[in-house]
Write a structure and sequence with these properties.
40 helices; ubiquitin-like ligase-substrate adaptor activity; TRPC4AP; Transient receptor potential cation channel subfamily C member 4 associated protein; mainly alpha; phosphatase binding; 2 strands; 61% helix; ARM-type_fold
Length: 797
């Protein structure tokens, strides 16, 4: 009999089972073919009618078919399981049957997740597929949910051991058989019920792993406020359980819609926001609020995030978590890394843990240990890294949510930042050893490596923590705060109020604060490192908002400007993302700062270097426009100051002299308007529109706005496309009004970053959009009638 292809699993290369696949079974000379049975079961599964379970067949019939089909006796076991799992059963026999079924599926799942699955298998259909096809999944769901049924006022109970077996079988079936996880996700009452199984330590790990997989494919986000006794459940978790629970929370508190992605258009995001306003808070927002209402929740997360490796649980507790280790955390690849390191250290240090190879028949799948066994240090570190990844992610999401100020206050109070500072060298940015923990098939520089992911998550947290919030000064220690005060005193300027208000008991301790540590590793980062982008973003967030001379000088004194220029000019960085982050950081560092421009001119001290710098700027204005904006704003301020130091910089700085030329400004203005359109505006490139407005606002201040518009018109004609640029700009400004006049945060950011009142922004846009063709400052005055196209509808449905 010809063998049909193996049932595809949930991993890469998954195929769809079809009638043609089922029909690959051989004929039986006039008798019903096994393929027909499976096809009918598959159709019943899809429609809910006809053959759907093993109980619809006789045991004799199933046994006869099994001889030919090699179903491993699974349908017969399901028949017995159904008979022994009725409401009045004591479940003893039921549990014995589950013990028979479990190894038939677990071996298959282990082979699948450890990538040791053969391309072709002897059996025609995997056991997990047969188990699901004959109704095994639905039967286990019913068994698990028996405690929700009351008989004569008493609820049924099943043992933790039995629940554990059911959960493991369900998870293995989800791993290997397509569509099972999605079907479970559609059973909302079952998903909610699963949370209640996490109250038992014996079933916690299996339950959490299954929930995480289910929520990952669920179309609608679950609401945590529907989970019975959520506060009590979470409060009773130990620290290990809470860390693993954060993997589930990561799915429940992050918006399912990717509208916050920089690549999504602002039109789409605005439409989504309008829809959200009419619907009320999203499920993610409701879930965030539910978590924040749990007493001590954020405090415990902060303790987990800042816990030292030596404070984590010992060998016994960790090995208990490794029971059925192939389901631990993401998948067996993580344990693959753990096992490899453990074996390496075992060879060198005569370590102590021997893991069974995948597929070993050792009872419970637990590794052999001795009484004197010690967990290898690198394994402890990996254990802690995997926990901290999830905890930092949850804290980061909460920091960006609606309750941001509340979360900020709590994580400051619970000393998250000083705690992370103490872990920086030994854990977060520790040096790689020869046996650094890297996932199978990856390398140390791959973003999938736990070490790498922890660093990126740490940098994202710093970015969210510092962005437009006065708590950013907690990234410094007491000596560094005193240094900020001294900088302000020397410059004879008022000290920043947020510095004065900083609670000194909550800042970093030790010789260096977290920001200084970050600068040190940033300057040592290899040119090709993926961290450069995140490091620059984290440091830039510290400078973002109202410009602070003291903050800038603090960073300038530590060589940050020279490092950035080296990366842009001397290393000739090619990564667009890194270049954009460096240009943004350079703009914030130099804005309105005469000393920064002097340092710039000292570093870019030849025409050759300056031309390389300009080449990088002009290679992509989407990436560099924030720097262009900051230099343009600085030039305008310097030109209005009477100061010898400023005059010297104006006369010597190549960059200021370049930007001061009207042809340069017009070239930038023309290209900035030309590279964006309303339909393609994103959070990433909308800065091009605002930079073009800054150039025109400063021209308006000097009563040169009509000149700049006239020059734009001439440039249009020189390109043989009259009207195409100004029509586009008109549409962009109309969108600007819709977008910014209803969003307080964005308008505040524009005002703080430019030191131009938002009322002046609005006035300038209104003047440009004036419909009076006689107005010398109105766009329509420079668009000839035949080319007028200013009333286009750019809204999206």
């Amino acid at each position: 009999m010809a063998s049909a292809p193996a049932a595809a699993g949930s991993g890469a290369g998954r195929g769809r089972r079809s009638a043609a696949t089922v029909a690959a079974w051989g004929g039986w000379g006039g008798r019903p073919r096994p393929g027909n049975i499976l096809l009918q079961l598959r159709q019943g599964q899809l429609t809910g009618r006809g053959l759907v379970r093993a109980v619809q067949f006789t045991e004799t019939f199933l046994t006869e078919r099994d001889k030919q089909s090699k179903w491993s006796g699974i349908p017969q076991l399901l028949l017995k399981l159904h008979a022994t799992s009725h409401l009045h059963s004591d479940f003893v026999e039921c549990q014995n049957i589950l013990k028979e079924i479990s190894p038939l599926l677990s071996m298959e799942a282990m082979a699948f997740v450890t990538e040791e699955r053969k391309l072709t298998q002897e059996t025609t259909y995997p056991n997990t597929y047969i188990f699901d096809l004959f109704g095994g999944v639905d039967l286990l769901v019913e068994i698990l949910m028996r405690p929700t049924i009351s008989i004569r006022g008493q609820k049924l109970k099943i043992s933790d051991e039995m629940s554990k077996d059911c959960l493991s079988i369900l998870y293995n079936t989800c791993v290997c058989t397509e569509g099972v996880t999605k079907r479970l996700a559609e059973k909302n009452d079952f998903v909610i019920f699963l949370f209640t199984l996490m109250t038992s330590k014996k079933t916690f790990l299996q339950t959490a792993t299954l929930i995480e997989d289910i929520l990952g494919v669920k179309k609608e986000m679950i609401r945590l406020d529907e989970v019975p006794n959520l506060s009590s459940l979470v409060s009773n978790f130990d620290q290990q359980q809470l860390a693993n629970f954060c993997r589930i929370l990561a799915v429940t508190i992050s918006e399912m819609d990717t509208g916050n992605d920089d690549k999504h258009t602002l039109l789409a995001k605005n439409a989504q926001q309008k829809k959200s306003l009419s619907l009320g808070p999203s499920a993610a927002e409701i879930n965030q609020a539910a978590l924040l209402s749990i007493p001590g929740f954020v405090e415990r997360l902060c303790k987990l995030a800042t816990r030292k490796v030596s404070e984590s649980t010992g060998t016994a507790s960790f090995l208990q978590e490794l029971e059925e280790w192939y389901t631990w955390l993401d998948n067996a690849l993580v344990l693959d890394a753990l096992m490899r390191v453990a074996n390496e250290e075992s060879e060198h240090n005569q370590a102590s843990i021997v893991f069974p190879p995948p597929g070993a028949s050792e009872e419970n799948g637990l590794p052999h240990t001795s009484a004197r066994t010690q967990l290898p240090q690198s394994m402890k570190i990996m254990h802690e890294i995997m926990y901290k990844l999830e905890v930092l992610y949850v804290l980061c999401v909460l920091l960006m949510g609606r309750q941001r100020n509340q979360v900020h206050r709590m994580i400051a109070e619970f000393k998250l930042i000083p705690g992370l500072n103490n872990l920086f060298d030994k854990l977060i940015w520790r040096k790689h050893s020869a046996s650094s923990l890297v996932l199978h098939g990856h390398n140390q520089n791959c973003d999938c490596s736990p070490d790498i992911t922890l660093k990126i998550q740490f940098l994202r947290l710093l970015q969210s923590f510092s962005d437009h919030h006065e708590n950013k000064y907690l990234l410094l220690n007491n000596q560094e705060l005193n240094e900020l005060s001294a900088i302000s005193l020397k410059a004879n300027i008022p000290e920043v109020e947020a510095v004065l208000n900083t609670d000194r008991s909550l800042v970093c301790d030790g010789k260096r604060g977290l920001l200084t540590r970050l600068l040190q590793v940033m300057k040592k980062e290899p040119a090709e490192s993926s961290f450069r982008f995140w490091q620059a973003r984290a440091v830039e967030s510290f400078l973002r908002g109202t410009t602070s001379y003291a903050d800038q000088m603090f960073l300038l004194k530590r060589g940050l400007l020279e490092h950035i220029l080296y990366c842009i000019v001397d290393s000739e960085c090619k990564s667009r993302d890194v270049l954009q982050s460096y240009f943004d950081l350079l703009g914030e560092l130099m804005k309105f700062n005469v000393d920064a421009f002097k340092r710039f001119n000292k570093y870019i001290n030849t025409d050759a270097k300056f031309q390389v710098f300009l080449k990088q700027i002009n290679s992509s204005l989407v990436d560099s426009n924030m720097l262009v904006r900051c230099v343009t704003l600085s030039l305008d301020r310097f030109e209005n100051q009477v100061d010898m130091k400023v005059a010297e910089v104006l006369s010597e700085c190549r960059l200021l002299a370049y930007i001061a030329q009207v042809p340069t400004q017009m070239s930038f203005l023309f290209r900035l308007i030309n590279i964006i359109h309303v339909q393609t505006l994103t959070q990433e490139n909308v800065s091009c529109l605002n930079t073009s407005l800054v150039i025109l606002m400063l021209a308006r201040r000097k009563e040169r706005l009509p000149l700049y518009l006239r020059l734009l018109q001439r440039m249009e004609h020189s390109k043989k496309y009259p009207g195409f640029l100004l029509n586009n700009f008109h549409n962009l400004l109309r969108f600007w009004q819709q977008h910014y006049l209803h969003k307080d945060k964005d308008s505040t950011c524009l005002e703080n970053s430019s030191c131009i009142s938002f009322s002046y922004w609005k006035e300038t846009v209104s003047i440009l959009l004036n419909p009076d063709r006689q107005s010398p400052s109105a766009l329509v005055s420079y668009i000839e009638e035949p080319y007028m196209d200013i009333d286009r509808d750019f809204t999206e449905e």
